[in-house]
Design goal:
heterodimer; A: about 160 residues; alpha+beta; DNA polymerase, domain 1; five-stranded mixed β-sheet; globular; B: Aldehyde Oxidoreductase, domain 4; Aldehyde Oxidoreductase, domain 3; Aldehyde Oxidoreductase, domain 4; 3 domains; about 25% strand
């Protein structure tokens, strides 16, 4: 057993864990933070995406011990005082989810994209979300949601400036 | 309670009630459930497709830390029956037993052989490796045709055959007769590859027992809590009234959770035996083996027509891969398609035969569309081939044969009565949105200049039977239950409304749509309605969700139950307003007395006064709650026209979808946002079959594409933006006028895409590309066409062999040039 100290969604947890315990299972089974689901065992689906010290990671591919001393943000830590983030609102308003199983991971991955590229084009959104699979939506409304949550795309913004 | 909803809810783009918990991570997936003392189950599965199991020793697993119990198939056999098949499609069908854990023989790679129960999931998985199993290999059975041949190894030795059943249908004139008088006949072979459904939420089950009273609650990621309850009772012998089944939040199904799985029965049986709660959650790669697959058919299709393109008849011979066992509706899936091969077309003769074949692979069963995508693929592919043979535009060929809008209701050659539709309107709208003529012109230019990146245009029309199902039809098809759906409406004392539905949503948005339907009929605010579902104690009666049935049957039940609430409220309103029932009007959620509108009571007030009233007249029941069970009088028949353009790089074989337009007619629309979402998702799955997905097996029967790294579920980067639109021809077989939309996109898109790929390559002599049309398959088809050996990869059998070189030359001549003569009779 290894001692870890991890801040998850603003709370610091101290735990003894098996070195092989996946972060996803630590969050779900030990902390009861079941907002982060697990969708595969090969890190292809992205359902378990969380933010680890400012970078989005697939929590099924990170060991809990690797998160020692880190800050983890999950989908459960996004809303503040019941106020949804722009991405959460956009997923709702653009019907960017159906069964919702991929949604936490999609939102966390999209959040990472918008941090790096606040005004992506539709194609850039599609490329950036390549590691997150959805079986319900066909992605179109997910792309719409991410675009709605971002500013206008770069080329439009430029046109606005020149106009 | 005074201001009532006046804006109509049905037809409105209501944002979903379901979303709040899903986007904040407060969802209740089955795997989220933690209870005190929970044990985790892990399953040892056969690594071989077919073998005799000569020894299973689970005892070494018991020495592992935190292991509570371990069982072989023999250990569990007592008190655990065979898993059920509810659809024995013929009287003489071969129905093999299906133990949840194999006892003496394994019949597919993934067949369970032993079970470990431990205190956590890691411990359970660890202990599996200690179990000792001796296998005596048997030959795998993988080829559908070889499996039927004399002397083939058998999947079920005691049955003496791999033939599960043969189900024939012949309607209209004899096909042989119309073939004799036909000027053109074409014969093609199409392969429906096996698909792995891959709902994003893996399957999971949790059973919590109260051992002392023999009561059990089963939480399962299922589409069918009601059917599951009955079946688990049968399999385990636990009386139905001691079983409660809950489908908590369920993360997609697409048919894969329309099932009674061995793991559900095992968790229940082991919870009973140990008196402890048990959980099992499959991993994705375990699910690839253990969750049923879809499709898996060989289709021999023959079409007969006049030289002007008038269809005379259609003959379909189907071999359907059952897999190793018959699961809940395995044999019935191809039969659901049997009625859809004629599609939207008129013809004089139709013959269909399906032979179900056992193989040593994962069982097949329902996957989005279930028989109907396969049927639509076959007719729409061969219609394109016929158009090419006749030198006709594929849209024009379809136009010459489809049922015209003034001909509805129309009894199809397969015997279905299509209640309504307007194929002309949907097609014209789609052609305009697509820019069909411009794209054809561009295609022509590119072909002429020999552009290495070819443009292809694919057309598909479709109709489907959905709203499963009229019980009388199910009787005729030998299905094991009726096709009704139940709803009840509870008017709470404060005027809030609970709609209790027998449907069991897993992404479809029933909570939102049923609220819209009820709010309109009752005249109450949308926000005042709550939908209760997926718990056999809270919603005791239901036939669950699959087959695009929920709205047309379940929504209709909600509608009728709400109407009954209004009628019951009318009696109490008459008492309260001291008027006769005939003198009352009901609008915007309130009863008023004709001529004196100030005397009024809202239905929400009546709910309260029904609760508090002390002096209702004799004979007036003190409730306005109501329930209704609907048995649909007919299926509903959505239809539409889908158009796809692709660019195929002839040097790399890569296909890129350039544009995709669909115009669907799903009848009246309750929520256009949800309908559009259903279409998008359906398109993605249909395109996935056309271009990306396949369950690949090696010669020994091992699944090679058993993870999401190997099985190509498309990502956002692999799919285009879709242009979706609708026409609206209300169904006349239900009061709401609704049809169904869950499967439409999947049904139409697969042939639209493959038709586009073949259309792009037809000038090169390619006549077919076997799905999925991967770069490798496309490239190979081009090489074979060039070298004059077309046929292998294309997979169209004899019809494609021969004169492809000539085909290529003649194909280059014109826009719809004939690619050769070899298909002529």
């Amino acid at each position: 057993m290894t001692h870890i100290s991890v801040n998850v969604d603003g709370t610091t947890y101290e735990d003894e864990v098996e070195p092989r315990l996946l972060l996803a299972h630590y969050l779900r089974d030990r902390l009861g933070l079941t907002g982060t689901p697990i969708g595969c065992d090969t890190s292809n689906c992205g359902a378990c995406t969380v933010d680890l010290d400012g970078t989005s990671v697939k929590s099924c591919s990170v060991l809990a011990v690797q998160a020692d001393g880190c800050a983890v943000t999950t989908v459960q830590g996004l809303a503040k005082d019941g106020e949804w983030t722009a991405l959460q609102r956009a997923f709702h308003e653009q019907h960017g989810l159906q069964c919702g199983y991929c949604t936490p991971g999609m939102i966390m991955a999209a959040r990472d994209l918008l941090r790096e590229n606040p005004r992506p084009e539709a194609d850039e959104v599609r490329q950036a979300l390549e590691g997150n699979l959805c079986r319900c939506t066909g992605y179109q409304n997910i792309v719409r949601a991410v675009l709605a949550a971002s500013g206008p795309p770069a080329h439009q913004a430029a046109e606005e400036v020149t106009a | 309670m005074t201001d009532q909803a006046v804006e109509r809810e049905v037809g409105r783009r209501r944002l979903r009630k379901e979303d709040a918990r899903l986007i904040t991570g407060q969802t209740n997936w089955t795997d989220n459930i933690q209870v005190a003392g929970l044990l985790h189950m892990a399953i040892l599965r056969s690594p071989m497709a077919h073998a005799r199991v000569t020894r299973v020793d689970v005892s070494p697993a018991l020495d592992y830390p935190n292991v509570v119990a371990a069982f072989s198939g023999a250990d569990l056999a007592e008190g655990l029956g065979s898993l059920p098949c509810a659809w024995p499609v013929t009287e003489d069908i071969v129905l093999p037993g299906h133990p949840p854990v194999a006892v003496d023989e394994v019949r597919y790679a993934g067949d369970p052989v032993a079970v470990v129960v431990a205190r956590d999931r890691y411990a359970a998985a660890d202990a599996l490796e200690a179990i000792e199993v001796d296998y005596d290999p048997l030959p795998p059975v993988l080829d559908l045709e070889a499996a039927l041949a004399e002397g083939s190894p058998l999947v079920h030795t005691d049955k003496g055959t791999n033939r599960c059943y043969t189900w024939p249908l012949a309607t209209g004139d004899s096909f042989a007769a119309v073939r004799d008088r036909a000027e053109v006949t074409l014969k093609r072979r199409y392969h429906q590859q096996r698909l792995i459904p891959n709902a994003m939420e893996p399957r999971a089950v949790v059973v919590t027992p109260i051992a002392a009273s023999g009561e059990y609650t089963v939480y399962s990621a299922t589409q069918i809590p009601h059917i599951l309850r009955i079946m688990l009772s049968t399999v385990t012998g636990i009386p139905e009234h001691k079983l409660r089944v809950i489908a908590p939040d369920v993360g997609g199904g697409f048919g894969s959770k329309l099932q009674v799985y061995g793991e559900e029965a095992l968790a229940l049986a082991i919870a009973r035996r140990l008196g402890r709660p048990v959980k099992w959650t499959e991993s994705r790669s375990e699910g690839a083996l253990a969750t049923h697959h879809g499709r898996g058919m060989i289709q021999d299709v023959e079409i007969a027509a006049t030289r002007e393109g008038g269809l005379l008849g259609l003959k379909v011979d189907l071999l359907a891969d059952m897999g190793a066992y018959l699961m809940l509706v395995t044999p019935g899936i191809p039969i659901l398609g049997a009625f859809m091969y004629p599609g939207i077309y008129k013809m004089d003769a139709y013959e269909f035969t399906c032979t179900g074949v056992f193989t040593t692979r994962t069982p097949t069963d329902a996957y989005r569309g279930a028989g109907r995508p396969e049927a639509t693929f076959a007719i729409e592919r061969i219609m394109d081939e016929l158009a090419a043979e006749l030198g006709l535009d594929p849209v024009e060929l379809r136009r010459r044969n489809w049922i015209r809008h003034e001909e509805f209701p129309y009894t199809s050659i397969a015997g279905l009565t299509y209640d309504s539709g307007n194929y002309e309107a949907a097609t014209d709208k789609a052609l305009a949105l697509f820019g069909y003529d411009d794209l054809r012109a561009e295609q022509h230019r590119r072909n002429e200049r020999g552009d290495p990146v070819r443009l292809g245009i694919g057309v598909s029309t479709y109709t489907e039977m959905c709203g499963l199902a009229p019980s009388r039809v199910l009787r005729d098809l030998r299905y094991g239950a009726g096709g009704w759906e139940a709803a009840s409406i509870r008017m709470l004392p404060t005027g809030k409304v609970e709609v209790v539905t027998g449907t069991s949503p897993h992404g479809q948005g029933h909570e939102t749509c049923w609220s819209q339907i009820a709010a309109d009929v009752l005249g109450v605010p949308f926000e005042d309605v709550e939908v209760v579902h997926g718990d056999t104690r809270a919603a005791p009666q239901g036939m669950d969700t699959y087959g695009s049935r929920s709205l047309a049957v379940g929504g209709e039940a909600v509608h009728r139950a709400a109407k009954t609430v209004v009628e019951k409220a009318r009696k109490i309103a008459a008492h309260l307003l001291e008027a006769s029932e005939q003198d009352l009007e009901f609008s915007d959620g309130a009863f008023s007395v004709k001529g004196s509108p100030e005397a009024r009571r809202t239905i929400q007030e009546i709910a309260f006064e029904t609760f508090t009233n002390h002096d209702l007249p004799d004979g007036v029941e003190p409730t306005i709650n109501a329930e209704h069970v609907v048995d649909p009088e007919n299926f509903s028949y959505p239809h539409g026209t889908h158009l796809c353009s692709v660019e195929v790089d002839t040097e790399t074989g890569r296909t890129r979808i350039r544009s995709y337009v669909c115009v669907d007619d799903v009848g009246r629309v309750v929520n256009p946002m949800i309908v559009e979402g259903q279409v998008h998702g359906g398109l993605a799955q249909g395109i996935a079959q056309a271009l990306y997905e396949e369950a690949v097996y090696d010669d020994d029967g091992n699944l090679l594409s058993g993870t999401l790294a190997d099985y190509l579920v498309p990502s956002a980067a692999d799919l285009p933006d879709f242009v979706t639109d609708r026409t609206e021809t209300p169904a006349v077989s239900n009061a709401l006028g609704v049809k169904g939309v869950g499967e439409a996109g999947t049904i139409a898109s697969t042939p639209a895409v493959v038709n586009a790929v073949v259309d792009a390559l037809r000038p090169l002599g390619v006549r077919d590309v076997r799905m999925p049309c991967s770069p490798h398959r496309v490239w190979q088809a081009i090489q074979e066409a060039r070298s004059g050996t077309a046929g292998g990869t294309g997979g169209t059998g004899p019809a494609q062999s021969g004169q492809s070189g000539q085909a290529a030359r003649s194909g280059e001549l014109g826009q719809y040039g004939r690619p050769g003569e070899e298909g002529w009779a």
